[in-house]
Design a protein that fits this description.
Layout lengths: L5 H42 L2 H13 L1 H17 L8 H15 L12
Helix pairs in contact: 1-3, 2-3
Length: 115
């Protein structure tokens, strides 16, 4: 069959090594993301009552971006030591209201008629 020159073999080896390194890096990044997600879920299990966790899962289905903001907020509070108690459903609703008010934009539509 075809014979490869030393330069061609070196180029093939370099490409193969680069591919292996890229895949290894991607696998490491996936593992880190999974570990962070597991840590986040464990923190949420500790700081939320079962009813509040159920509400959070329902929110995640309807408004994933709001659920992510809420999760990040709760995890941040917990990691900084500012969360000293378990959050119940009513308290979670209040936090949701606060987050929603901060993120809500005031949209005004003005209709101008000619003439």
């Amino acid at each position: 069959m075809g014979e490869y020159s030393d330069e061609e073999l070196e180029a093939i080896k370099r490409r193969r090594l680069a591919e292996i390194m890229r895949r290894s890096e991607e696998a490491r990044e996936r593992e880190e993301e999974l570990a962070k997600e597991l840590q986040k879920q464990e923190i949420l299990r500790r700081v939320l009552t079962p009813e509040a966790r159920e509400r959070l899962s329902n929110i995640k289905l309807v408004k994933p971006e709001l659920a992510k903001s809420l999760e990040d907020y709760l995890v941040g509070l917990s990691l900084s030591g500012r969360l000293n108690k378990v959050i119940g459903d009513e308290e979670l609703k209040e936090i949701l209201r606060q987050i929603d008010e901060r993120s809500r934009r005031d949209i005004r539509i003005t209709v101008r008629r000619k003439g």
